[in-house]
Amino acid sequence: MEDIPFSIPPGSRYGLLAAILLTFSSVATSTESLFTYTVQPKDELIKMAEASFTSNEGWKEVATLNRLKDPNKIQPGQVLKIPLRLLKMVKREGVLLSVSGDVQLSGQPAVVGGLVPEGAQLQTGANSSAQVQLADQSRVTLMPHTDARLVTSQIIDFGNFDQKSQATWFTGLIRLTKGAVDVLAAKLAKRNTPLQVETPTSLAGVRGTVFRVAYEDPANQNTRTEVLEGVVRTDSVAQKTGADLPKGTGTVINPSIQRIQVSPLLEAPSINAHTVAFKPQARWNMPTLAGAEHFKVQISGFKDFSNVLREQVVDRHGQADFSDLSNGVWHVRVRGIDARTLEGFNAEATLQVMLPANTSHPAAEWVAQNDHIDTLHGEHVLQFEPLGLDASHAILASVKINRPPYVRVAKALVKPDGGPIRLNLGPLTAGENYLINLTVTQADGATLSPTNYAFDGLPAGQSLSSPLKHLASDTTLPLPASAHKSKHSKRHKAAG
């Protein structure tokens, strides 16, 4: 602690009191956040306080902290230290980055890009999730069956200070009344106070880290906190006790238990990087992991898990059930749950849900069947039935001449409506061989492996059933065996 010099008039009966107050001021400012400001021409400390401080009297504390002999005389270029707590706060909304399924924002359907103001309530239903970006760029993902409120979302208002001095000093508090949240707290953000997640029984605060908080069963009043990066401070509201949780640890807080037990998290289980699940069963055996009583399995359409569309707890000897997922390539993560219900580190993989194999076609995510081409008014019209697709899918069709330089001649985007897909491919040359690439995406973000077919252009007025010849996804029209080795790689690159 550095003492601030002061002078006491001889014989002053307030000398001791003044000394105590000034020493207290030094202690208070030695550990708190300070804002440094370079004085500009025409600046006056008292006027600045009136415009930007929570109290008009705040200038007195600034004068004391900066040892100003005369607060009315500050010079351009002079640097002032100002406690952040003296500055006014203004509200700042969060933004919804992801909305999947049934998500309510203060009682109304939530949409991507919607603003989340201070005081807003967010609720997610079954197979639903939402991700909010806060004003400090932190991201909070609400898991299925979650109810949370953005209680505080404010930044410091620097008022009439020059723009170069301004920064987003954030104060945020999320109140979780049911469910679970994953928090990615921005590491480089400036915060007036730690970003906090509050439940009825606990309070967790961080400045930059990755962690999870869950209050999934209000009846037992347990709050679970798990830290994947950084350090989290967690406190029991009822017992007035707390503990620091470093990376790889967690705790379960109950209002009736005084001692906070910090435990190591389970390691990530070992799983294959790519898993295939065949319908109609679409089951997946759980891995082996020492200490795991159960497993948490989550499904997302995105690699960063900005949405979570399915979540299930599976017994260590059980199977995850993916039978209700649409065909496609999904992202799956799984983590062990120990005897205290703490959830460990994630293992991640891609999950490909496919149709079962049968005698008519090989195992596939989807199949174009009963295909047919007509030439009408000089244009080729392709029609087929998309077995395995539904209205949540979108098909992007791209047609190229199947020879160098592989010029694209048609492109179309359509959605299944329960009937055959109809694509107008435009005027094509009779006898020319064409490559059609069909890429399917889903509303939830999952993608299907690109499907490639080859077909021949028809003379005017002719029709042909089953014109599509299925190709491997990484090849164009099959080459003769003698040319395959020398030309395959070049042809593959050009076709891409």
UniProtKB/TrEMBL annotation:
Pfam families: FecR, LysM
LysM domain sequence ranges: 36-83
CDD domains linked to this entry: LysM
Biased composition (Basic residues): 484-496
Region Disordered: start-end pairs: 477-496
InterPro entries found in the cross-reference section: FecR, LysM, LysM_dom_sf
SMART domains assigned: LysM
PANTHER family, per database record: FECR PROTEIN DOMAIN-CONTAINING PROTEIN, LIPL45-RELATED LIPOPROTEIN-RELATED
Protein name: LysM domain-containing protein
